Predict the structure.
Amino acid sequence: MSEQRFAEQVAVVTGAGSGIGQAVARQLAVEGATVIGCDVDAEGLATTAKLVEEDGHTATMIVVDITAQADIDRIVAALPDQRVDLLANVAGVMDHFLPVTELDDATWDRVLAVNLTGPMRLCRAVLPLMIARGRGSIVNVSSIGGLTGAVAGSAYVSSKHGVVGLTRSIANLYAEDGIRANAVCPGGVQTNIGRSAAPKVPWAYQRLERSFGRVTRTATPAEVATLICWLGSDEAVNVNGAVVTSDGGWTS
């Protein structure tokens, strides 16, 4: 395995202000990538930039809201030589474990916009650039909530199932253009996504809790980042359309 797997490559990472996205940005920088980190959290991005510098590297941070097409355009405009080798769609939010009967339109729209529509728009934006170069990799962060309905509310589960479908569609349609697309499905991870995970409907959360007994451990962001970076690298050249769990055996 090469310690400089991303030398002379350009990588875009969303959700780079904290958690998994921050860990991915740091690892990619260490491995030689020109990193474009994106997040709505300016303070978080500043922290990531500082950590990358402490690692002995640099990265470009852009404060954006991936739910806004104008901000997607700003990301593309910031790409050096209009090139991107890896897109890591990491940004995501939870839905307070709301069941569909208690689900308000605002929560549904927000969760779908961040977790599914934003990643789709970024894929749509970078795919022509990848196709023009005949190579590129997309890694979308789904969740075990994209494989089962037993771990979150209706909006989150729907959005993460959608991410799996989006990934498989891209993998199928663009493989002949030299593009790979894979999805990672984490279980519990030590991130600040909990800010949108506070349960609001006790009976629904109590029913979902039954599945939590299978949790053996909570992963660190760096543990998930290693998988994302491997899938995005040339070492995974024969991996396309895969949906890979990183859940400590939760869904086994």
